Amino acid sequence: MNATAQAADTSGAGPSTAGPILRVTDLHASYGDAGTALDGVSLEVAQGGIVAVLGNNGAGKSTLLRAISGTLPLESGRITGGSIEYEGREIAGKDPTTIVRGGVVQVPEGRRIFAGLTVDENLRAGGLATKDRSARGAARGRVFELFPRLEERLSQKGGLLSGGEQQMLAIGRALMSQPRLLLLDEPSLGLAPQIVEQIAEIVTEINRGGTSVVLVEQNAAMALRISTDAFVLESGRVGLSGRSADLAGSDEVRRRYLGVATEESAEAQAEESAAVTRPTHVLSTRRAEPKTLHAAGVTVRFGGITALEDVSFEVAPGTTHAIIGPNGAGKSTCLNVLTGVYRATSGNVSYGDTGLDTMRPHRIAALGIARTFQNLALSPETTVERNLLVGRHRLTKAGFVAAGLSLPSSRRELAAQIDHVHQVAEIVGLTGDLHRLVHELPYGVRKRVELGRALCAEPDVLLLDEPVAGMNAHESAEMSATIAELRAALGLTIVLVEHDMPFVMGLADRVTVLDFGEVIADGPPDEIQRDPAVLAAYLGTAGAGAETGGTT
Amino acid sequence: MTQFIELTINGLSLGSIYALIAFGFVLVYKATGIINFAHGSILLLGAYVAARTQADIGFWPAMLLGAASAATLAALVDVFIMRRLRGTEPNSLAILTLGIDIVIATDLIRRIGPDIFTSGAPWGSEVARVGDYVIPETRIAAASIAILIISAFFLAFRYSDWGVAMRAAATDGRTAALMGIRLNRLAAGAWALAGALAAVAGVFFVSFPSPGVDNATGLSALAAIPAAVIGGLDSLIGALVGGLIIGLVATYCAGYQDELSFLGRGLGEIAPYTVMLIVLLFRPAGLFGSRSVTRV
Fold it and tell me: Residue A52 has what pLDDT?
């Protein structure tokens, strides 16, 4: 029924079925005066095709989607040249509403569901551009067909859904306007391997219903598997393109995006990391003897929900401990208990002989325990430098009076702190971004800012919540190298939560697996990878083999 | 006791008028993130137009005309000034609205001069007797109409497409735009609706016991700022509760001013601000305001 409606809708535009549904030609775009974000991108999406767009953080993938959906001006960006033809008509520079009504909808990075609205209202919001009520009803039916889960949770607030459900809601919301071209920005971000599998199936299913898809992904393995064609963006240009199957076989793509270590690439990478000597000494000024971090029988309940049930583990000084598990298993809650953000209902956590249970977060930070956040807790409207300076807070002596009056002593101290911040920036690779505002940065780069901020506090224990979410295999390997180096140079104790298995298995000395708030396995990585309970709950049998090959 | 009950009823009625004005602050804040300090002069325009025209066209049409003028003026301010500056720092824009307020108010005060225009409300200074209690009819009318408008408003906000769009845009404008929701149109609509509500409230403000529209009427909207702030600036329920609290406090202070004379004269005027300070000391985001809650 909608097919005929749509056909009637576009009949004036000529033979739209013959050509590609989307043709981007020599597209240029930029943000304010931050330089060029897209520098001549050309690509085509065939009717009914799935096109994958890969590339590093900052390569211009999100900018490309924003340009197509007409939302660049909202991020103070603009299209400076080139054209975007959709079904044979120019849409570059059109307003977002016109583009949505034309049948092009973008699902934003990070899901961005309306947390305070119910699932039902989120879906309604997605259908508002459609005036025809019966069309809205049809779209709704289709969404429930694809996501029966959403129908069960209609009256629940969007913010209470798990990560995977939120992604389903974000996609469902976009489908409410019955798009013919769906733009997906990182649908697998922060999701457990099994949920990523589900999302991949759903995208394929949506495509089978006649919707063409542009899929921006860091999970190149998944993207190349379900797409027909792929484009790799590098610094705002198309670096590589071709049939997805061909690209998946090319050495370049295998090394950079699939994390498969070929012999030459291993050598190249060894050289690369040897060449970089990081000034890690700046981080080792005042260091107490690292102690054991210990959780014993920790249970956390929110209202009626048990987030953690009798969880115990021990992190020996100088080791790296990974906590893995499906979305909603209680991993972040674990970190929150360790840093005093949540309080354990029963059980206790301690660092050496010091009990952490009753301590306020700032006192725990003063013990030398620093962390990063899963959902990015940065100040978006301030520069990277300022955000890093916040990390120096506990090591800053000038009080607010001295700082407010800009007394010479506080000015000298500030200069020294900024100097320190610059050195940390060099270690985590942010030197070029120091004076950019955080909200201008791609997700993966923001993750580095978080790591930098935590390092600025000169911690003994570093807690990392999804440090490589939003990064591709190559970037994640780089991050892994940085962390390994920091650990070696400083004797850091590290606790990390992460879904990227090559990353986890390459770094961790020990792994604790959570499911439904309980520990289902605990041991060294190679044991965990073979544990049948872990395979069933988290890795999935197919995922485990394919994703563990690429450790560096 | 009789006095207390009468004051309570009067206070609730006054409070519902404050709530209408506070809704305006909340609406504009939700749609654009700006505190609109030009709200007072927009209210003054509405009340002025209604009072000037009521002798010729009658009270109800005049009220509608006043509401329409205020809505138009507010929408024009949004479309021709605020829209061009979208994305500018909200605090700068709030200061800008102060400037707009001064320009509009200056012109209106010049037109009003030393005159006082009565609202021509049909119930004038009549009082109704309910048992032992004496209630001015204006108060009953004000409260009934306010309740009607407020209920319609809540229902629309909760259930209509417009309400869903408003709430979606207030949560995350950029994402709402991706859904094809027109942010500019929503913002202009919010400004216009805020203006219309202010005009209706203004007409009641200048009805009995007030003598009519004079050059200080615009200031009465200022007392609704504490109402909106107490409620939390981004919550409609908050605006309603805040309005009622301010109405009650102001009425009690005026009614019991002899007993409260040790605190000095004119307590009614400063009471709203005192309440606001106390509330903010304990709940910095207001009673119903969304504290920025995040999952970490």
Answer: 95
Per-residue buried b or exposed e for B209-225, using 16+ beta carbons within 10 Å of the residue's own CB: ebebbbbebbebbebbb
Q: Which two tokens stand for residue A204?
A: 């394929």
Cα–Cα distances in Å, from A241 out to A42, A53, A248, A337?
10, 9, 11, 46
Confidence band of A274 (pLDDT split at 50, 70, 90): very low
Residue A27: predicted pLDDT = 95
For B211, the 3-state DSSP assignment is coil
Length of chain A as a residue count: 552
What's the token pair of residue A413? 């101290």
Helix axes A408-428, A443-456, angle to 10 degrees: 130
With CB atoms and an 8 Å threshold, state whether A126 touches B295.
no
- Mapped onto helix, strand or coil, the DSSP state of residue A285 is coil
Chain B CB contacts of A118 under 8 Å are none
Does the pLDDT value for residue A307 go beyond 90? no
What pLDDT does A182 receive?
A: 97
Strand partners, A105: A182
A443: nearest Cα among A475, A417, A415, A482: A475
Higher-confidence position of A199 and A8 = A199
Q: How far apart are the first and last CA of chain B?
A: 52
CB-CB neighbors (< 8 A) of A125 in chain B: 164-165, 168, 176, 179, 181
Backbone angles phi, psi at A312, to 5 degrees: -130, 140
**B296 neighbourhood in chain A, CB within 8 Å:** 332, 336, 341, 373-375, 377
Rounded to a whole number of angstroms, the distance from the CA of B243 to the nearest CA of chain A is 24
Asked if the model's pLDDT at residue B113 lies above 80, the reply is yes
Residue that wins the pLDDT comparison between A282 and A317: A317
Is residue A29 classed exposed, middle or buried when 0-12, 13-18 and 19+ CB atoms within 10 A define those classes? buried
pLDDT digits (tens, 9 = 90+) for A116-172: 899 999 999 999 988 888 999 999 999 999 999 999 989 988 888 888 889 999 999
- Alpha-carbon distance of A126 to A420, in angstroms, equals 47
**Integer Cα distance of B101 and B107 in angstroms:** 10
From first CA to last CA, the distance across chain A in angstroms is 52
Q: Which of A128, A107, A135, A94 is nearest to A8 (CA)?
A: A135
For residue range A52-77, list pLDDT tens digits in order: 999 888 888 999 999 999 999 888 88
Half-sphere exposure of A171 (CA within 13 A, CB side): 33
Among A377-391, A398-412, B194-208, where is mean pLDDT lowest?
Answer: A398-412
Helices (H), chain B: 2-32, 39-57, 59-76, 90-112, 137-159, 161-171, 173-178, 183-205, 217-220, 224-231, 236-255, 267-282
DSSP-derived secondary structure letter, A157: B
pLDDT value of residue B53: 93
